[in-house]
Write a structure and sequence with these properties.
Layout: H1 7-13, H2 17-51, H3 76-84, E1 90-91, E2 94-95, E3 101-107, E4 116-122, H4 127-130
Antiparallel strand pairs: 1-2, 3-4
Amino acid sequence: MRLLPIDYPIRNLGRRPSRTFLTGLACALAAGVLVAVVSFVNGLEASFSSQGRPDVALLLSTSAQRDIIRSAISPAVADLVAADIDGIAKVHGVAAVSPEIHMGTNVRLGQSDEVHAGFVRGITDRAFLVHDRVTLVEGRLPGS
């Protein structure tokens, strides 16, 4: 089998300059999109891995595979988990389980401040058993 000399395809690149340019542009755009997607995924992974703790587990419903915001589990599940699963930490004899509500919403810190996308967590007193790094800086817990 006889191969064509390398100068044939190189010479043909100049015969259709617009097609050569558009082909190069398409390759560059595809590479740019690939880099952007990989960077986005790496950023999400770094963000999520820095937020979690190896000794805390989240229970989500099957709908959470599509969207974590729509995960819905009955608050009674926390007590069932505490009673049924060995190895749940106890703080002063109370199982460290916390039913919580998570919601993505718009948040404004003050009346004159801008509205930003935020993530709000509804908790009970038991949340402090699980999230021991959280402190209440000012005010009081809701319902207390």
